[in-house]
Write a structure and sequence with these properties.
The chain has a seven-stranded mixed β-sheet, with helices on both faces. Helix 10 (288-300) crosses helix 11 (320-333). Helix 6 links the parallel strand 7 and strand 8 (194-198). The chain has helices at residues 15-22, 61-77, 86-102, 104-115, 119-140, 177-190, 205-217, 231-240, 253-262, 288-300, 320-333, 353-368, 403-406, 422-430, 445-454, 487-493, and strands at 27-29, 32-34, 41-46, 51-57, 148-149, 156-164, 167-171, 194-198, 224-226, 246-250, 269-273, 279-282, 312-316, 372-375, 393-396, 413-419, 437-441, 459-462, 481-482, 495-503. The chain has two domains: 15-274 and 481-499, 3-Layer(aba) Sandwich (Aldehyde Dehydrogenase, Chain A, domain 1); 279-469, Aldehyde Dehydrogenase, Chain A, domain 2 (3-Layer(aba) Sandwich), CATH 3.40.309. It has 16 helices and 20 strands. Helices cover 39% and strands 19% of the residues. The protein is α/β, with parallel strands linked by helices and 505 residues long. It is globular. The chain binds NADP nicotinamide-adenine-dinucleotide phosphate and magnesium ion. The site of NADP nicotinamide-adenine-dinucleotide phosphate has 30 residues, from helix 8 and helix 9.
Length: 505
């Protein structure tokens, strides 16, 4: 359902947001606000309306170089990881989380404007989860330990310490602008690194605002730097720079391949959180009401612009029609509208005109290859015609071999496919180059455990979908990535282990 739109039904911009958008926005390098040296800028657009929100600096190689020098200098001086105690670092990270919470309405409006997501979702999900992430890792600063190793050489004492890697370039996507940045920044900071953040070109605003909060919190200059810019220029220069010790990347597999190639000359550390085409399996014995609602939001949460979208939906054949009908009924209740409408929608637009074309291309391809939609399938017009709105779309009559069933669409499209038995669906679920997440709905404990063991994915959800927690590791098998974010694993991802030998007799 589309919500009616009248100009008077928009939520007012907060004065702080209005002022921020009216300013000349700058890069944050070494604790100072500076324009791109070339003076280049680019526009960021509100996908709900197609209107330009602001111009932001377009960082080029020379700006990347300046940021790397600033971060390097701070790192080498030890101002962050050596001169402050672990407890002082933790306190600063915690203070940042407090400031994020205090500025939550501002951060939420910036992400809602830039990404299109409903501002209420940004304020109740994205911002609190981001602040929580910083709090979790604030606690880690005092708990990063090495080990004493019982080596076999008599008289020899051997122990390990965990040290920061150095300067980390963090490159993030646009689907959860603040949260994806928080997932990387918080553990990298806790482990003692200095950071250069490159937000997505579609959603640079909350990253720049976050830099203000770093400043207000009192972090030493150079610990946190933000470069807005394009992937092919700013992102690529970060990846190639010999002064960057590690790249933490979230995004597409194709850009990940470029990053691996471009990091080869310096052999810097690279960790990757990539896409998925996650299988979501509904067995006939499941609580079907729960499964219907769960599968609907697994597919359409954040408009399907979620790396863990349950976009391959396998349903046991004898309940297939019933479940698909139930999902179509749920989808019919979903309200689509602008991120800043007073009457808040469930879903906003997709993030950009390019993304709209990509998703509509997949939908056309689905029809052309014989799939049909039980609901959705069209771009929304009327009052939403200036934005990038697509109806949530459920396809049936889909073969596993179709493009829409194999490739990540990253939009509001799900393929529902029947299956007859457990071995068959397990095989089909694992027949994918991806392995980020997988899930199933069943009341049978043995099936639940068997599938948890046999599904090849980094996260398995059973009778639920989409849960994450700062404390629980997250990442991909196969082409869904290298390394794990969150939990203790992310401390490992952002630190080096040193082994120390001492002749003690
Ligand atoms: P993308 O095109 O790969 O872009 C991601 C980031 O990489 C952006 O900041 C982008 O800059 C930058 N980039 C582009 N080319 C680059 C290059 N040559 N060198 C260095 N950086 C470069 O991905 P997206 O379309 O924004 O995001 C969608 C993808 O992210 C999906 O595949 C999704 O599954 C994945 N994702 C994964 C997770 C996870 O945790 N596993 C979470 C969210 C999203 P520009 O903005 O200028 O292009
Ligand atoms: Mg934008």
């Amino acid at each position: 359902m589309t919500l009616p739109v009248f100009p008077e039904t928009y939520i007012d911009l907060l004065p702080e947001v209005r002022a921020f958008l009216g300013e000349e926005l700058k890069l944050y390098i070494g604790g100072r606000w500076v324009p791109a040296l070339s003076g280049a800028t680019f526009e960021t657009v509100d996908p709900s309306t197609g209107r330009v929100l602001a111009r932001v600096p377009s960082a080029q190689a020379e700006d990347v170089d300046a940021a790397v020098r600033a971060a390097r200098q701070t790192f080498d001086s030890g101002a962050w990881h050596l001169k402050l105690t672990a407890s002082e670092r933790g306190r600063l990270i915690w203070r940042l989380a407090d400031l994020m919470e205090a500025h939550a309405p501002i951060l939420a409006q910036l992400d809602a404007l830039d990404n299109g997501k409903p501002v209420k979702k940004a304020q109740t999900v994205d911002v609190p989860l981001s602040a929580d992430h910083f709090r979790y890792y604030a606690g880690w600063t005092t708990k990063i330990e090495g080990a004493t190793i019982p080596v076999s050489t008599p008289g020899m004492f051997n122990y390990t310490v965990r040290e920061p890697i150095g300067v980390c370039g963090l490159i993030v996507p646009w689907n959860y602008p603040l949260l994806m940045a928080a997932w990387k920044i918080a553990p990298a900071l806790a482990a003692g690194n200095c950071i250069i953040l490159k937000p997505a070109e579609q959603t640079p605003l909350s990253a720049l605002y976050l830099a203000r909060l770093f400043e207000e919190a009192g972090f030493p200059p150079g610990v946190f730097n933000v470069l807005t810019g394009y992937g092919e220029t700013a992102g690529a220069a970060l990846v190639e720079h010999p002064g960057v010790d590690k790249i933490g990347f979230t995004g597409s597999a194709s850009v990940a391949r470029t990053i691996i190639r471009n990091s080869a000359s310096t052999l810097k550390r690279v960790s990757l959180e990539l896409g998925g085409k996650s299988p979501n399996i509904i067995f006939a014995d499941a609580d079907l009401e729960q499964a219907v609602v769960g599968a609907t939001w697994a597919s359409f949460g954040n408009n399907g612009q979620s790396c863990t979208a349950g976009s391959r939906l396998y349903i046991e054949r004898r309940v297939f029609d019933r479940v698909v009908e139930g999902i179509a009924d749920e989808v019919a209740k979903i309200r689509v509208g602008m991120g800043m409408q007073a009457e808040q929608p469930d879903l906003g637009p997709v993030v950009s005109g390019d993304q709209l074309n990509t998703v509509m291309g997949y939908i056309q391809d689905g029809y052309a290859s014989g799939a049909h939609s039980v609901i959705g399938g069209k771009r929304l017009g009327g009052a939403l015609a200036d934005g990038y709105f697509i109806e949530p779309t459920v396809f049936v009559n889909v073969q596993d071999s179709l493009k829409i069933a194999r490739e990540e669409i990253f939009g509001p499209v799900v393929c529902a496919m029947p299956f007859d038995d457990a071995d068959e669906v397990l095989r089909r679920a694992n027949e994918t180059p991806f392995g980020l997440a997988a899930g199933l709905w069943t009341r049978d404990l043995a099936t639940a455990h068997r599938f948890a063991a046999k599904l090849r994915a980094g996260t398995i959800w059973i009778n639920t979908w989409g849960d994450t927690d700062a404390a629980s590791p997250f990442g991909g098998y196969k082409q869904s990535g290298h390394g794990r974010e969150m939990g203790k694993e992310a401390i490992d991802l952002y630190s080096e282990v040193k082994s120390v030998w001492l002749r003690a007799d």
